[in-house]
Amino acid sequence: MDRITAARGGELRCKGWRQEALLRMLENVLENGENQKELTVYAALAKAARNWDSYHAIVNTLKSLEEDETLVIQSGKPIGIMRTHKYAPIVVMANCNIVGRWATSDNFYKYQEQGLIVWGGLTAAAWQYIGSQGVIQGTYEIFQSIARMHFGGSLAGKFILTAGLGGMGGAQPLAGTMAGAVILCVEVSEARIDKRIEVGYLQKKTDNLDEALQWVKEASEKKESLSVGLLGNAAEIYPELIRRGVQPDVVTDQTSAHDLMYGYIPSGYSLEKAAELRKSAPDQLQADARASIAVEVTAMLEFQRRGAIVFDNGNNIRSQAVQNGVENAFDIPVFTEAFLRPLFSRAIGPFRWVALSGDPGDIQKIDQYILKNFSDNDVVVNWISLANQYVPVEGLPARIGWFGHGDRTKLALAVNEMVKTGELSGPIAFSRDHLDAGSMTHPNIMTENMKDGSDAISDWPLLNAMINCSSMADLVAIHSGGGGYSGYMTSAGVTLVADGTADADLRLKTTLDNDTGLGVMRYADAGYEEALDEVNKKGIRRIDTTLKENE
Ligand code: NAD
Fold first, then answer.
1. How many CA atoms lie less than 13 Å away from 308 in the CB half-sphere?
2. CA 258 to ligand 1 center in whole angstroms
């Protein structure tokens, strides 16, 4: 079968743009994905569909689906078509949700083997992944926040050590150089290093640690930004740097440490040996992976003790280390709590849009609109200017911007108008990461150490999905699984199509206001000052049950 790429241009294969848009989004996640043959988009096992039969059935159904029908998808497999109405979602899906006590990684692997389930990642099975750009800005915002909090506003001359150059981790070198730093990325697969160099995210590569450190030293001294891919295993390189007394300023890791079977490669292993043991001795492979993670996290803790800013970048590495006896692994904070919570409290998070025509000019025009009409928003203006310069087009042209409550609606309505007047060459799909204010519970990433102790309460993403369905979104998804594939997280995703119609105006305004409104309410409920301020400033209709007038 030919390699799948997203359709471009104005010709419809479906009965309307809403269906066509979702079909192109599905094709686009595969076009941008890591291993199309396996339908894998990123993070070792995050898939766009259950299997190829399911994929083809989804495509055929979207092509014949009427506007007043809804396609129901269960863990990447199309289940049926429901007669709904033209304001109902075109697609609803639930991916990898397993009941509490059964939600273990062993059960996940078993159900997956039986063909009953896939893990959807956050944006893979919900067809919202736009390539590495999606995480570039998140990573860039983390680095900028670290610069502001710890280095007087700039990372020039600072040395960031990290690992993993996969689907998500591949964004790290570009985000690092955009932030002005020198970044060393340890990666066990040469093919992954080459891929990041090919797309322009990574500058140099070597398999020689001495050479890598020399480059880092020279660039740091000259305060020049640089990214280096070092072929090696993080569980070997991190402790070696400790032994040599090399001290980075910032340390993290974005290997697939959440997955001991298909993700993290133990020290001393080649990729071939890992593949072989996956079949012949999976228990040994997982035990070795966990032991290596423990070694790596021990080194990260030592970097921290020696004064580096060390953080968990959302890959569950600390939990794996704890299970292998590194009791203080949680001395390393998670990035959301350490750097991003004030933004999420105002529902400022990873909003994104995709030019369904395939014309990069559409994204440029939206960039220009933003630079002109959001000029007082420093975070967005700074990012859009850099993204224009550094972020290559991957798949359908797309852009991400950290907008909050009200601003997302303002932008989306303006874009819908640009579609209507023909200023843009085709419709635009809006979505966001699931890791957003009101749409994710992950007690070890998004909601760790919440002020009110509500870290593990997953009512919020479920409410989010229900509200977005009621608000007429085009696609709504509920996911579970996450790190370790067990019950570590629940999240909800949403996609909307700006096709230039009045109905799209209604869908965009209602859904985007409610999506972010619930996010602000979630943080206000937990007692965050920024969220309470946002409620007052933006007139969000939160019910405060502690007020006397309720009595
Ligand atoms: P991926 O599977 O595409 O890539 C992981 C990379 O790590 C691979 O290239 C692999 O070769 C490399 N690797 C594995 N073991 C290694 C080792 N011991 N030393 C060096 N390299 C090693 O995964 P991805 O999509 O890049 O995601 C990575 C992790 O980040 C996942 O756990 C994912 O869940 C997490 N993630 C977090 C966020 C966030 O919230 N910040 C966002 C996206 C992904």
1. 24
2. 8
* Number of domains making up the chain: 2
Q: Say which residues have a Cβ less than 8 Å from residue 500's Cβ, sequence separation at least 6.
A: 416, 417, 419, 420, 421, 427
Same domain? For 167 and 245 the reply is yes
In a domain, 339, yes or no: no
Verify whether ligand 1 is closer than 6 Å to residue 520 (CB atom): no
Task: Indicate if the pLDDT at residue 551 is higher than 70.
Answer: no
Ligand 1 centroid – CA 169 distance (Å): 5
- Does residue 356 have its Cβ closer than 6 Å to ligand 1? no
Candidates 426, 415, 361, 431; CA nearest to 393 is: 361
Would you say 307 is a known binding-site residue?
no
CATH of the domain at 184: 3.40.50.10730
What is the number of alpha carbons within 13 Å of residue 125 lying toward its C-beta? 35
Return the residue whose CA atom lies nearest to atom 23 of ligand 1: 43
Which pLDDT tens digit goes with each residue over 33-83?
Answer: 989 999 999 888 999 999 999 999 999 999 999 999 999 999 999 999 999
Could you tell me the distance, in angstroms and rounded to a whole number, from the CA of residue 262 to the centre of ligand 1?
A: 11
Q: Whose CA is nearest to atom 39 of ligand 1?
A: 314
Which of 96, 187, 254, 480 to mutate for ligand 1's pocket (most ligand atoms within 8 Å of CB)? 254
In tens, the pLDDT along 111-146 reads 999 999 999 999 999 999 998 888 898 899 899 989
Amino acid at 456: A
Of the listed ranges 377-381, 517-521, 542-546, the one predicted with least confidence: 377-381
User: Residue of the nearest CA to atom 43 in ligand 1?
Assistant: 168
Please answer whether residues 15 and 110 qualify as being in contact, where contact means their C-beta atoms are separated by less than 8 angstroms.
no
- CA–CA dist 166, 152 (Å, integer): 31
Tokens of 497: 């199509």
Measured CA angle at 108 (ends 105, 112), to 5 deg: 145
Residue of minimum CA distance from atom 37 in ligand 1: 314
Q: What is the pLDDT of residues 332-342, one digit of tens each?
A: 999 999 999 99
Range of the domain at 325: 133-333
H-helix or E-strand containing 490? strand 489-498
Q: Is 192 annotated as a binding residue?
A: yes
197 with 222, same domain: the answer is yes
Q: Which two tokens stand for residue 538?
A: 């933006």
- My answer on whether 164 and 124 are in the same domain is no
- Do 386 and 487 reside in the same domain of the chain? yes
Which atom, in ligand 1's list, is nearest to the CA of 267? 18
In the reported structure, the alpha carbon of residue 291 is separated from the centroid of ligand 1 by a whole-number distance in angstroms of: 17
Measured distance CA(395)–CA(28) in Å, rounded: 6
**In this structure, which residue's CA is closest to atom 40 in ligand 1?**
314
Decide if 255 is inside a domain. Answer: yes
pTM: predicted TM-score of the whole model, two decimal places: 0.89
3-state SS assignment for residue 80: strand
Distance CA 20, CA 476 (A): 16
Q: What average pLDDT does range 219-225 have in this prediction?
A: 98
Q: What is the CATH number of the domain that holds 403?
A: 3.40.1770.10
